[in-house]
Fold each of these.
Amino acid sequence: MNVRRSAAALAAVGVLAAAAPATAADPSPSPEATVPAGLYGKGDPTYDGVWRQSLTLVAQRTLGYKPAPAAVDWLTGQQCADGAFAAFRAAPGKPCDDKLKTDTNSTAAAVQALAATGGHGGVVEKAVNWLKSVQNKDGGWSYYPGDPSDTNSTSVVIGALAAAGTDPASVRKSGKSAYDALPAWSIPCDQDGGGALAFQPDKKGELLPNADATAAGLLGALGKGFVARAGQAPAKDTCVEATSRTQVADNAGAYLAAALGKTGHLESTLPGAKAQPDFGNTADAVVALAANGRTEPARKAYAWLEKNASPWAEQSGPAAYAQLILAAHALGEQPGDFNGTSLVSALNSQGPAPQMDSSGQQHEEEKKKESRNWGWWIFGVCLVASIGVGFLLSGRKKQQP
């Protein structure tokens, strides 16, 4: 789920990737870039505009909010005529041309957001049709069409298909679906990093464990997108040969649980830099582990995020807040109190204010009504108890000589 920016872009912004899509070695973002109206966040949108907007809208919907029309319109306005999305269109009023590189990750993220928002069936259908048209023969997807498939891109497309109401198993190229592609990136149990998924084979054809790809691949193997709830615990807690997508997920879950076991967080190493906590991947791992029914390590990681992730989110912007909200949602935690920080208020303040939708309002009213009822019930119990004590004391006084 958490696909990466280039190392050059990361170095330029000075933060670990916050759920921003991977790119080739593009130039560093311009610090003078202006942020269009309707877009969340204040940072340069060149590499992650559609991605961060999509995560924001998805997170808001999980909270029961109706995203602001300006925010939704900004996202729909980024779509090209063929249905695809790029990371960012600086001039959405002009037709897309060959200079604009559309990609599967931005397109799949937008599908998940607009499917959650509702009312944009035409935009979603066009985007899904474009995704189907660029599927690779192994059943998977690459970031840019025509490149070799990778775990992250394949998984985010699975999430998009599922969100749009399409069974990922039914979308095939040369007879293969995304579920056929995932096992090829699962590292055998008897090798270093067994159970993890690789992003894709390296130049030598070897599979190297990648926590980012493992979390994404776990959700993809389960047919899940950005939003997930705690699932059923796996039957086996150890790595076994991955002959099915379910086993791919279970192996990935075992690997992530072990990776989080000691510290409660994952680490990332940028070229030339020391290993440091990777907040974004840790948040993604919480969602993935919860979906896989491994709630104990997921809660440990979430507790670590509660203690440490607020400064990262404040620095990184809306995508980071959205990731933390989705992690809280997966475990049934309260994002309104994230170690004293309201992730909800922090996210919503990054752009146009959303409105609580009718169902969310009704839910809040029901909770308030329930709270009032409990209050009256407790008051009644206390009243009855006090009357009983009064009678008891009165009786004792009468019995005294």
Amino acid sequence: MRKKLFFATFLTILLAFTLTACSQKKKQNVYQTVKETKTINWGVKADTPLFGAINIKTGQINGFEIDLAKALTKKMFGKKVKANFVTTTANTKIQLLKNKNIDAIIAAMTITPEREKQVDFSKPYFPAGQSIMVNDHSKIKNVKDLNNKKVLIVKGTTSADAVKKFAPKAEILQFDDYGQAFAALKAGQGDAFVTDNGILAGILRDNPGYKLVGGNFTDQPYGIAVNEGQTEMHQQINSALTQLEKDRTYNRLVNKWFGKIPGLKVKEIK
């Protein structure tokens, strides 16, 4: 009888300890942990030119979001904390955040109602949206001009629905990836290539003879994501973004990465 009582008591204590440990882990303050470890792990893109891409010469990831993450790190923690970059993809970034493999995501991530059910977003830091790429000689000036034109888009994106909303008579041609869609534009298989303005800007950087027209015709801004309930980290990121805007650091980074992209209105980003 005593053995059974002892065993039952032991299990109760063990269960209480486990629940307490789990609760403490769940309530971990990421902002304070970063201060203690002196390293913040940012989830970033490594395949999106201008935002985050591998530099072939150095082997390092560079881009607008990389520079912005470094500036945010300095604003939030001073020089004592190092910014570490972890490569993410569309399919892995939220899971890496949930598993605490990264502390925040800054990876061309569109703020959507569905994602807001899983993470907390900062205020927008880049006014992304659907835009139009054409060759320099095209007479297309805006989304309505896409009526009765062949429009190239990438499968699995929201581009087709966006185009049909504003240009219902457009003929949509779908491709598996951005490279194929742009190759089709170069080959004259379509009149315009429509997708996210930031992605088009990255393609334009290395391909003269093309331009963006009409500005964004949808509003799909990017935000920095943190785990739900990480109030201090969320507040600190928003505060740092505001400070970077006030001291003109944000403007300097926008000009550095997007200032020479044909048809991209830098003033609209600032």
